[in-house]
Design goal:
Pathway: Porphyrin-containing compound metabolism; siroheme biosynthesis; sirohydrochlorin from precorrin-2: step 1/1; Porphyrin-containing compound metabolism; siroheme biosynthesis; precorrin-2 from uroporphyrinogen III: step 1/1. The chain is 36% helix and 18% strand. The protein is an alpha/beta fold and 472 residues long. Bound molecules: S-adenosyl-L-homocysteine.
Length: 472
Amino acid sequence: MARLTSFPAFHKVAGRIVLIVGPGSAAAAKVRLLSETEARLRVVAEAPGAELLADAERAGAELIHEPFAPQHLEGAVLAFAATEDEAADRGIAEAARAARVPVNVVDRPDLCDFITPALVNRAPLAVAIGTEGAAPVLARHLRAKIEASLAPELGRLASLAENLRATVARVLPGGEARRRFWAALFDGPVAARALAGDAAGARAEAIRMMAAEPDVAGFVWLVGAGPGAIDLLTLRAQRILQEADVIVHDSLVPSEVIAMGRRDAERISVGKRKGRHEATQAEICDILVREARAGRRIVRLKSGDPMVFGRAGEEMAALAAAGIPHEIVPGVTAAFAAAASAKAPLTLRGVSSSLVFATGHDLDGRTLPDWAGLALGGATVAVYMGRSVAGAVAERLVEAGLSPSTPVAAVENASRADETILTGTLRDLPALAERGDVTGPVLILIGRALAESEHVAASPLAPEAARNTAAA
Ligand code: SAH
C-alpha cells in the first residue's frame, strides 16, 4: 500500500483565531472556506480587494488594514499565507513557524505544515478530500461527486446520533448490540425520518428501537463476490460486508473485496490454494454453524455467484438443519464475465436459445453427460473448472456429434487486470490443458453463437495449430 505523507485530522477551531493574510481572491477563497467553521477569522491585508472585503464582511471577520507583521499571529491556532507573492508568503510562513503556528501557503505544498482539503460540509458531518497537493483539481472533481451523493440533510442524522449517544451508552451495554443499533439507525426508518426533517419522530423511533428485544441470533449471508473485478461486486454485497462480524472466504475472492468488510471483522480463509490447508466442505459448514450459534453475523463470500458451482446447496442444508436464518446475495458468475470479455453472446436469435452451465469434472466416467445432448441441440455451453479436462470435454462433444469447427472461447481471469482471452474451435480445445502459460481460473465457452462474437484482442487457443494452418 502506498503511504501518505500527511495524516488527515480535524483541527479544532471553534472560538479560536485563524489568521488569513492576503489582499486578493486566494485570501478570499480561504475566508469562504474557513467561514464554514466556527473559527474567529482575522484577515490581514494592507489594501484588500473588493472580493476579500465582501467575503470578510459576510464572514464577520476582523479585518486589519496593515502589512503583515508577526504580532498578527498572536493567539492564532492556524495561519494561511495567501498574498500570491512568493517572498511575502515565505516571510509569513517563517514567522508562523517561529511562533509555532501551523501554516498553509497557498499553492506551495513544500512550504505548508498542513494542507487544506476540498470540503463537503454536512455539519457535524464532514468529508475532507486531499491529494497531498498532488492534484487539487482531482480533489475538487471528487468533491463535486460526493456533494451530489450526500443528502443535504445528512448532518441532521449525525446530530441525532450525537444527541442519542449518552442514552445508547446507558441502555445498550455490549459493543455488539450497540454497533447493530447504530447500523440499523443509519439505514432504517429513523434515518428516513431524520432526513425528511422530522427530528422528533426520528428520535421517538430510535428510542423504540432501543427498547426492542436485542437480536442475538446469528445470521449467515451467502454472498457472490463476482468474477474478480472489484466494481462487479453488487451494492448489496458491499453493504452487507459492512455488517459482518465474520467473513469466511474462498481464495478466488480478491483481497480488495475481503478488505471491504469492517476493520474489526474476523476473516477466515477456507481457500483452495495449492500447498495450503484446504478446509473440507464439512469443516466449512461447521464453521458457519458454530459462528452463527455464537450470535455472530457471517458473510460467506464466494467467487462469482454462490449458487453456481459454489457448494451453496450443502451450506444451506447445514444452516437449515441447525435452524440458522440465512439469505443469498447473487453475484456475477464467471460465464457472464467471460462472455462480456470475449464480446460473445450466449444466446442468439435463430442460433442458440439455451445456455448450459457445466463442469468438466463429470466427464471422468464413460457415460456422456446429458449436457452434451443439449450442446448438439444448439445450446451454448459454459464449462467451469474445465482447464485440466479440456481434452476430454472436446473429445466427448465431438464423439456426441458436435462439429470440430464449433467456436470456442476460453477466458482466463475474466474481468481481472490479468485477463487473457483465447479463441479457436473445438478442435483446438485440448491444447488448453497443455498450456503452461495459463494458470488462473478459466471459463470455457462453446457454441455456434460465439461465431457472432465481435472482434476482440484475443490470442489463438492453440498457437501450434494456428501456425500450421497459416503455413498450409
Ligand atoms: N461460483 C463461481 C464458480 C466457482 S467454481 C461462479 O459463479 O463463477 C470455480 C471455477 O469458476 C473456476 O475453475 C473457473 O472455471 C471459474 N471462474 C471463477 N472465476 C473466474 C474468472 N475470473 N475467470 C474465469 N473463470 C473463472
